[in-house]
TrEMBL record:
Keywords: DNA damage, DNA recombination, DNA repair, Endonuclease, Hydrolase, Magnesium, Meiosis, Metal-binding, Nuclease, Nucleus. GO terms for molecular function: crossover junction DNA endonuclease activity; DNA binding; metal ion binding. This is ERCC4 domain-containing protein. InterPro entries: EME1/EME2_C, ERCC4_domain, Mms4/EME1/EME2. Residues 141-409 form the ERCC4 domain.
């Protein structure tokens, strides 16, 4: 029997009752198909099919078709049902479209948030420059009232020092006459509707204010104060305290500094006038020309000191007596520099605790606990009249604050706890010069209060 007829007999014999031969036939045809199609590259699916009444897989059926029709014809008839795409419904297409749109919007949102964070970091860096010591002067502007420039003749000197310092200086008519104020440029950020960061540059007014009182007005205010001290009514005139109180009511929350230029020149002119009047009274007129001085209100240095003391006590304001325009301009320069650098230096001088803490060169403690005994010793040395020898003697008995506190809690009475450290021996010196003493009742009492008192405001005396 030929090979092809044998295969035909096997296929046509679909009514064979011998069920055990089916796996053998299937295995046989699979091996034959794999041998003949090994170089063809065709891959068959393993779904079940029926060929000639025999239930076999597609690999077997297609190998048989290839055997009968030839490999060229078989290549055209081979199809893989598993690779067919399932047709999507309209709802699935719409859902996928919405999902893709949501993902796109999420990507855009994250991109905008990233750009906004980048802009915020940039603005934070720019805002720090406003308060840094190196560039803070660039953001300060000095505002000088126009009456200071026109009446007092101080404008040229003030503009000169501001230019040397590197700060902007402008003249304008301010709310209170004869004042100097400062403004700082501050950069802030706002989020727009499109999540973009918008830079906003604003000016804030500082709390420092200099008010300049011309010497003639100042003398009149002192004279009014002197008359009121004597119980006289000066008739509607204001004294120094009234004027500064009015300025504080207009500029609420500001620190007022009073500047009086030319007071020493006033005292010299007053002395010259007094001498002339005395000479005129005792000597005849010689006919010489002398420079005439206007009528001066007479106040003494004592009157000025009393008025300034009253001003300081009642209004808490500072007064500077200056002479030349250069002195006034130098004061404006120093104030400008201090106002500009104050935010940068504020945290440096603000105390962290309610007591004076130790400097940066304190005791360092590593991760292994080395240095804790030194910290404990420094804590004991904070007390008055506690020497290093006394602290060392207490540390020898109680190496940590916890052990000392535990010993206090184990005492039967308060009297016993107070005297716990009283009899600890303190050794001083070494060798033949060694002396001993005890901690004593007073120190023992203070240490007991420190570790047992629950009132944070209690003062240990």
């Amino acid at each position: 029997m030929s090979k092809q007829s044998c295969r035909s007999d096997f296929i046509s014999d679909g009514s064979s009752s011998d069920g055990e031969d089916i796996p053998q036939i299937r295995s046989l045809w699979q091996r034959v198909a794999q041998k003949k199609l090994g170089d063809s590259g065709i891959v068959f699916t393993q779904s079940m099919g029926t060929l000639g009444g025999l239930s076999v897989d597609n690999g077997y059926a297609e190998s048989r078709i290839m055997e009968i029709q030839g490999p060229e014809t078989c290549q055209a008839t081979v199809s893989v049902e598993g690779n067919k795409k399932k047709k999507r419904s309209r709802e699935e297409i719409e859902e996928n479209r919405k999902l893709a749109q949501t993902k796109k919007e999420e990507r855009e949102r994250k991109k905008q948030e990233k750009e906004a964070e980048k802009d915020m970091r940039r603005l934070e860096r720019e805002a720090k420059k406003t308060y840094s010591l190196n560039s803070c002067l660039q953001f300060i502007k000095v505002l000088v009232d126009t009456r200071i420039v026109n009446s007092c003749g101080l404008g040229t000197a003030i503009f000169k020092v501001c230019e040397e310092l590197g700060v902007a200086c402008e003249t304008q008519e301010l709310t209170v006459p004869f004042t100097v104020v400062w403004k700082r440029k501050v950069t802030s950020a706002n989020f727009g509707d499109d999540m973009k960061v918008e830079t906003v540059l604003t000016e804030i007014e500082e709390n420092e204010v200099i008010t300049i009182i011309p010497v003639a007005d100042f003398v009149q205010m002192v004279e009014t104060f002197k008359q009121r001290q004597r119980g006289l009514d000066p008739g509607g005139c204001v004294n120094l305290r009234d004027y500064v109180t009015h300025v504080q009511s207009v500029l609420v929350g500001k620190n007022i500094t009073v500047v009086v230029p030319g007071m020493e020149q006033y005292f010299r002119d007053l002395k010259t006038q007094t001498n002339r009047e005395f000479k005129k009274a005792v000597q005849p007129d010689t006919g010489k020309r002398v420079k005439k001085l206007g009528p001066l209100t007479s106040v003494s240095r004592l009157d000025v000191e009393e008025a300034l003391t009253d001003l300081l006590l009642q209004t808490d304001s500072t007064t500077f007596m200056l002479e030349s325009p250069e002195d006034v301009a130098d004061l404006v320069r120093r104030f400008s520099k201090a106002v500009a650098e104050r935010p940068a230096k504020k945290d440096r001088y603000d105390p962290i605790f309610s007591f004076h803490e130790e400097g940066a060169g304190g005791v360092k403690v590593d991760k292994n606990g080395n240095g804790l005994l030194k910290v404990w010793k420094h804590q004991l040395l904070q007390f008055k009249n506690v020497s290093p020898d006394v602290a060392q003697a207490i540390i020898a008995e109680y190496p940590s604050p916890y052990l000392l506190r535990q010993a206090y809690s184990q005492c039967a009475s308060e009297k016993e706890a107070i005297s716990l450290l009283e009899n600890i021996v303190v050794r001083r010196g070494a060798g033949v010069l060694e002396t001993t003493r005890r901690v004593g009742k007073e120190l023992a009492r203070r240490f007991y209060i420190l570790f047992t008192c629950e009132d944070p405001d209690f003062v240990i005396k």
